[in-house]
User: Fold these one by one.
Assistant:
Number 1:
Amino acid sequence: MISEMEAVPHSAGQPAATEGAIVRTPGAADTTTPSDFQDFSSVRGGAFLLPLRKGYNRSVRIIPLLACPSGGACWYNPRMAAVRLARLSVRPRIETPLFRIAIAFSMIAGFLLLFAAPARAQAAPARAGEIRALLPTGYFVRAGSPQREAQRYDAVHWEDILRTGRGGRMRVGLLDGSLLNVGSESQLQVLEHDAATQRTRLQLAYGRMRANVVRLAQPGATFEVRTPVAVAGVVGTRFIVRTLADFVEILALDGIVRVINADPAVVGETLLRAGEFTRVARGVPPTPAAPASPEQKREAEEETDIPAGPLVWSRAEISWPPAGCGQGTHLLVRAWAKQTREGKEIEEPVDTELISGLLTLGVNTVFVEAGRATLLPTSTNAIPKGAFTPAGSPADVPTKIWAPKELAEGEGWRAPRAAFAGSVFYVQGPMGIGARPEFQFDAQPATLLWQGPCGAGFLAPLAPGREYDVSLSLNGVRVASGKMNLITIAYRLPVPPTVMKGQQSRFGIDISGLENLDRHTQGRPVMVTI
């Protein structure tokens, strides 16, 4: 049974016009066409400068608004406020002395109004991601605000400055799925991060950081890390940047990293491949690529790790994605550790953000960061043998890989009409691998198991069997909603539940959560196989 989830309409509080779109204002002269708006130049605050076309003069009143109203010409730019051209008249120029004086006064008044734009016209800061982990504490500075202690899941915006003290660690998850580990005594600023265009610029003023960058697939996509003396650009890789006393060291863990001097007058670049490093000093090109020693790699990784602490790892689990889901599917590794409480040994789940290490899948080995591993494209449902080795652990732990389910045909957002509580189900649709998906049954979240271009796999919560209102959110924005049943099964056993040889016993089965499912099965009864 597959039901289509209803797509949530675009928020009415956001500008409706697309970037660069122009809608003619009612009552304006017929000569006002899009060609008359060539060479727009915009300034911060939502005000626009329109060039005077030869033979015409324009009288323009600009009003900053939170949303583009109907009946106005709107220009939307994500970094600036939306504006409405409330009145636009175009008429032949009249060459008279009085007219020239009026034009001079109007230009002076216009420039005064332009630079006196109220603060409320400033666009809200663009979100870049969120803080995923802190050990033990970290700090951030937002424009116009003093430094404050950071909290887990705090939003990170463009221009935010992130700092750590001695022994501190911080992990930032960017909206495109990239992860940034900030090491001890470091300062990182997110200058720009646009998940849609995959354009990212970071500034590491001092200290060290490790980046796990998703594959850049958009035209013109860039991921750039600047330091006082070097610039590193990547296409989709893992690398470490360390600023030291006399130079900057950049080490590639995977993929390819391009390194140049931050001074454009210094000519020369170095391309790093997995396991290679370079050093950059002021005024000189990067050193040639050289293999990093095992001790050098271990030291660089330990300085940027988010350690899980002294854990006794007991087991790990992975839900294998379906074949044909697309390239770069992300797996979520779940792990458990043994602890002793009140003299008893118990098993508890490990925080996902603290799960790092190596995942061996058949003949391939992939890196796990924050519980996430990226798979190579697969065209088969064959499940390889797997083993997870936690970072800092000398041996792997028992690893269970669950078999995939079949994908359902159809278009749009799709989810099963019912699932057993605590079991796996799929949500299919145009999700991609950069967004952060969340699926909820009323207010109870499901656990993400894998994520790919075709959708995501979730583990249903252990909740009472009944019909629920469900919703899917990407990066905190609800994109689909619908109805879904959770089914639970309880057994009524005899007391005592023992049966001797030759005896007979009866037991009952209570099934909950089947209400309203009959109208979704085309007249056939719902069959539950136990």
Number 2:
Amino acid sequence: MSQELSPTPQSASAGISPASILVVDDDQTTCTFCARALSQVGYAVSSATEVDRALDILRGPQSIDLLLADIQMPGLSGLELAQIAREGDPAIAIIIMTGHATLDAIHQTARRGVADFLTKPFELDELRLAVDEALHKRQLLQERVRLRALEKILLSSEAINTILDLDQLCRVIIERACDHVPCDAAFLVLLAETVDQPAQVIAMPDGAVILPSGHAAALDALGTSGPLTQTGVPLGRIGDHEITTGVMVPLRAQGQAVGALLLCSEHSDLLAPSSQDTLALLANQAGTALRNAQLYGELQGAYHSLRELDRLKSEFLAIASHELRSPLSIVLGYTKMVRDRGEGEQREFAQRALDSAEQIKAIVDTMVRLRHYDLNQLTLSPELWPIADLIRQSVERLTPTADQKNQQIEIVLSDDSLTLPVDREKMLLVLGNLIDNAIKFSPQHAVIRVGLTRWHHEHILAAAGAAVPNSTIRRLSTLAETNWAVIRVSDPGEGLSREQQLRIFERFYQVAGSLTRDQGGAGLGLSLVADLAILQGGLVWVESMVGKGSIFSFALPYLSGGAGPE
């Protein structure tokens, strides 16, 4: 016989779930007395006068916080019932009632982990006090268990968050889950990147197989915010044995589902609230770790793709520069011969062809230099040169190009005497590419300014620090403090967005698409400038705003007396 007594309206209105108590005594009077007395103070009480009924309640879905049982009952003693209850819930509070509190009985209750011992007959206050104390001990025990579980979760979190290999991480997550919540089989269902791809399933032990109903249950868990339980349905299989009880928990990162964890076992411990709470905590950490590993994998893939792209670009430079130089030399030679021997329109047409061929030669020469730089074959031959003279030579060379657009190139020198040991050819390449770039991207009748000045190290730090980072600026922190010779080329062109400034010194990068842009070139000139800056221990950067033009700065370090690079 058994009866259910609901808590009083007072406890229900408190908004807190009352503690659940199971009273077991073969004496109907004692059982009813205890059940009513405890129900009146707000506990949710179940009672049973038969051991089988008590076992059904203990094994049922409703969690029992405290077992109040008589020590002597037909078929199964209260001590044996307490042991069964403790196996199902190690933190359950237990009080044994007996009319004869012998020393042997007390020892037996202690060995079985019984929380308290109550001697019949007892007063109502004694009963309530014993129950309050037992529940308080249970709460403390639960806190200790929770802390130990949290410590294990923390260790597991540290372990899984240091793994970036996705396959290894999945195995470790399953291992940790089985360690926290013992089970017969565990499955991690990892969602694919696209909906048309099947989900990946990782199983433990190796012979475990997830069944269709288990796979569907794991996917159902993705729509929940916490653990989901399933019983009576085949979820997994080990050999010929099917497992019909499981707990599913979603794995999320930043609100996005990345997979689900399914644990299967025939033991009721798997469905215990403490097991589900532990699994939920682990799932929170696992979801983030899985997403990080996926992002790392994507980053690695992108990195390898970029490396392959760089390899292909370098190979293209090598092949193009080698295959084009010989036939181009022949074209230039014959075109010059035709021009020199021709007259009138024939001479004019030959000159136009020669100009175009010279443009192609300039691109090929740039490719060769970049190839040499990649192979560390680009060397410097420094000699003392007045930097102002090199600027004048570069401007003189490019003045005819500027004249075609009715542009003017002004030279602004704050220091005409600065002489540095530089490689003349390399410096003319730097100046030529910077000035040519300004001519290309400036409108008709524009004024382009080329300046030279000396800056202190603090000025360089401020200017470069405000600029968009590039490969040369990132080296600034490794350079010794010194003075700098700064060449600045300013143009009134359309200017550059921040996104364009981030890539302006990359090889083959062009502000406009190759098929729609108005200006020529292969997108190699500024890349060569950056490489030559690094080769000479210098810096290059751009200051620009859309619609406000651009200023390209090239800086070389030198000793205080102007003796040369430091």
Number 3:
Amino acid sequence: MDVATRLTSALRTFTADSPTSRSWTSAQRARLKSGECSLVEWASYYLPDLAYLEPGEIHRRIVASFGNGDSLRAAAMASRGSAKSTLIGVANTLRLAALGRKRFIVYVSPEAEAHLARILNQVVENDRLLFDYPHLRPQDHRRLKIMRKRKRKETQAEFTTEGGVTFIAKTPGSAIRGMVRDAHRPDHLVLDDIENKDTAANPDRTRKLIKWVKEDLMGLAGPGNEAMSIHAIGTPLAHFTMIGTLVDEWSGGVIPIHDALTGENLWPEGLPDEELDRRRYGFWAVFDVDLLRELRYAHDTPSEQLPEGVKFVAGMGDRAYHQEYEMKPIEDGAADFQRHWFDDRFIDADDVNPADFVQTVRSWDFAATEKAAKSPDPDWTACVKMGVDKRGRVVILHAWQDRLTPHAVEQRAQSFAREDGQRVRITIPQDPGQAGKSQVFNWVVKVLRGYHATAVIPSGDKRVRWSGLSAQAEVGNVWIVRAPWNSTWLDHMCQLPFGAHDDIGDASADAFNFLNPGEPIWSAMEAFPS
């Protein structure tokens, strides 16, 4: 399949004679040069070194959020690494300047100078772009003019093309009103990820940033400059953000890496699911001297399958992944577990002595369905190993989650039981009704035969069920054994009850309530009298 055919399938907007093919007719080139095409097509043809991967559905949606780059006020939240800066920040600004639609472009970003350097590089080195738009060549020695104001922590960089288009890069919060170049005021602004984690964590700073956009920046669209456009792109880093506010008030959209309805990866060529898993959960890595490259193994690869010398590279965890790739930020103050409760509550694995524990339990929570096309994001099967030591501390000894077939889950449970030994109790959740009793009987009598397995019947509101563990964590009495799974447990717990899943939370609640029973816990065998 040639490139043109692949793009037709991926974007659904390309014609069979896509401009990404190896040759172009004069009619095709005329259409591209006039801008009578989609922004994705234009970027694929004129910026091949930036658009070197096959575009995906995510790019069509990003571009559509900005009216093919021509909207006056538009904002979009899109996944980290989705090339939104390349499309809206670099490609569209060059397109607007090339077609003579804008004369004074201001690029606002913490990394504005680097983004402007990418634009300058195109108008210096890109022969294909300059052949059709020679007026984009820079006037002044092909370098950026850079000015820094240390007291105000502002940076400004700029260059002007031979056609008289001015590009300026500014850091967020900089003074922009009153800027004039050759009698022109700014007529196009790009706001690119202007929020950071510090801003997102402080609602007052977020409100100040919103005020700056609405008063200082939108105030530029005064008499004689009504056609000034503002395009904002970003990734949500908290529940209340500037980019989220602009998306709600302007035209635009929210574009996660996976389709919200089908679960389809919207850019498998650039961010395949395997890479997303590595970013989310971490991975094992070792440098192979013979191959002269790094070998990577999935985070849940069994230890017996890992070569010697591997080191674990921690992932970003569920919380950050939900925010930066699924566009589902969690409001910090509203969660039932707060991350700062665990800041100094870690124990090295070498310091853990099983004899120091009064009681230890591994509690399970089973998923109802497996991952499939009709259920792309089902619940997880999860288990948590927890103990109470002689000092009264609650210690999280291990946490695990996966999506496996029922038989594979049984095998994993048997493996954990062998590793844990007879001292560790096991709890199995029982669903209501006879089917739940049959499932428990199978687990206790067949799967975990020879181990002390117990059934528990979860009941009541989930937030009440894990409230005891939450209370202990808040006063600093929940400790965690330092291990690669820490981020998975913490991210999951610190998004409760707002996250997409609560499987680890349910298993943790069952484990804690078993160790600290508020009501009698009965043995599974009592349900099946002889």
Number 4:
Amino acid sequence: MSLINRKHHRHIGGISLFLLLMCFFVPITSYAGDRVALVIGNSDYRHLRDLGNPKRDAEAVASRLSKLGFSLVDARGRQGTRPVYNLTQEDFFDVIDRFAEQARGKEIALVYYAGHGMQIGMKSYLLPVDTPKKKLKMIERRAIPLEKYILAPLDNRAELTVAIFDACREIPGLEEATRASGLGTSATRGLARIQGESQTQRLIAYSAAAGQLAADGKGRHSPYTGLLLEQLDTNPRQTVEALIAQVAHNFPGRYGGQRPEFLNQGVKPNYYYLKSPVPNPPAQVAKDNRTSMEQSVSRDTREPVPVTSPGVDPIELEFWNSAKQSQDPEIYQLYLERYPKGSFAAIAELKIRQVQPKARLFPPSPTHGQLVVRSNVSGDTVYIDGKAIGPTGPGAHSLPPGEHTVRVEKAGLEPFETRIRLAAGKKQTVYAKFAWKRSRIPKNRSGNEPEALEMFKAFGDIIKSMRER
């Protein structure tokens, strides 16, 4: 082989290696195991009206998510491809705890719920299948507070929490319990909007606006879930926030009536895709390009044939080849400005993230929580895990996440002690309320009752006698 041909083959080998490396830089987000989902369908209620669609809705949503790389968590906390059905109150608590553990460190944790739901006192509740219907107080005790027991356990678990609630379907007979409690029917319709904040990126979708009922539908799926499935089937290469927004946008034109809503809490735009936005597997693209370039070398001539990538503008290719080794993010930004839909746009965006300071793009996750201990006295002493740290006050103490024992002592008073669970990045306050020690309360002469109690009794007798006059 001639010197020119050997050099040309080395040139091809270098470009082939570069294209092979490109495979690892294409941002594909749908890896099985990086995303987990809990899909719940409550249909068979024991005391409320049964719902025909939630089970079928849950099965269909679980099937679509599984095909997109989500691992479905079952009632025992195992990962698979199936939803869970007909959860009682106890089942709800168990499955959420197990799902929260599975969500730790994942890219996306998604919860989908279809079934009965309502609001009481401006708070949202999901209704387990063992919910009664006669008294509102009994319903409230059995219902699952959405914010406290569904969303809060998922804080600081996955990068992104997605919650989709196709709930608030009409509950015949509930009006009687509502009227008996002195409330109007509108006070329990629909789900109230989330009031709390979260340090986790959250996307929360509702099948109906606050105070609206969601239709169960007469077909195989509820109207909202039907549109959700339609989007998953026809446009899987969109971001999660685009999916939710598109369903909410399409619903009024298709069905009217209820108006779906969603809440976006700090979700990074155009980042979390349902499926890779690259239509062809990157390895296959690199293989095709490599084969094409190798075939462009003539075996019968000593002159090298110019190497190009099929379908790529030669000027763009030359620009990229001159920029690809740079450590200056402005070079890649200039490429994106000139070729916003260029063949190497995805790699340029990744390069920008790589060469910019890590601290600016990816601030370190909090490793400690903050604990404030207050009390109703002064001159006390706080002990955390057996170690004295000083008196109570407004100052926060930085502690590692997990369980801690908090004890507050003051001479002459009963000590206060409690055990807390602190989360990283969270601030928690413990308020110690002291009581006098029994031995320090003065007794009367007979030793049977404290003198203070006798004084209160005497004062009560005086008031009673004045009223009788």
